[in-house]
Amino acid sequence: MMHETSLADAADRLREELPGHRVEILNGSIVVTPPPDGPHQETCFDVAFEFKQAGGWEADLKAVLGVGVWLPTGRDDYAIPDLSIVDADYKDALVEKACYAPHVFRLVMEVTSTNWSNDLAIKVETYARAGIPHYVVVDRKHDQVLMHSDPEGDEYNVVTPYKRGTTVPLPEPLGVALELSVDRLLDGDD
């Protein structure tokens, strides 16, 4: 890849050569993640469906899967959250390469896979720095769900862990009353 003209070009080439893999640029480094497993995908689709059913569209928000957020951490940095809750007019904030400006993102969610350390460290910092109000990590490695809120600098001031047998309430500013089962988030649709 040494002949590539930029980091973004190298990421584009990897995306073409590795169909189904997620290619992101985080803090100036290319990160490649293999395709997700079934329970991972079930969790994302279930949350999107439940959000819509609870009135998300009426609140002028949409739940979208695999849409990129342009990050302020580097010239070519972007992440592709597993699920995002965005303003209904998010399409007007297109930056490039199917990535949108961070101001339209109200919540992002990652379901951990083989790259769980990125979701628990690097993405916490980058999403906070982007000013995304809420970051949910479905941490299958440690069997819990973490709700990060109130970003300041490169961290979130509030981190609330949720264990099995409990529910995760969506934050009130989203305008939707929805409680998500931690067990279902961790295991997919049982």
Give me a quick take on this structure.
This protein has 190 residues and is of the alpha+beta class. The chain has helices at residues 7-17, 38-53, 116-129, 182-187; strands spanning 22-26, 29-33, 61-65, 68-70, 78-79, 83-87, 94-96, 99-100, 105-111, 134-139, 144-152, 155-162, 167-169, 179-181.
Protein described:
The protein is of the alpha+beta class and 190 residues long. Helix content is 25%, strand content 35%. The protein has helices at 7-17, 38-53, 116-129, 182-187, and strands spanning 22-26, 29-33, 61-65, 68-70, 78-79, 83-87, 94-96, 99-100, 105-111, 134-139, 144-152, 155-162, 167-169, 179-181. A 6-stranded mixed beta sheet has the order 3-6-9-10-11-12. A 4-stranded mixed beta sheet has the order 5-4-8-7, with no helix packed on it. β11 and β12 form a beta hairpin. The longest helix is centred in the N-terminal third of the chain and has 16 residues, at 38-53.
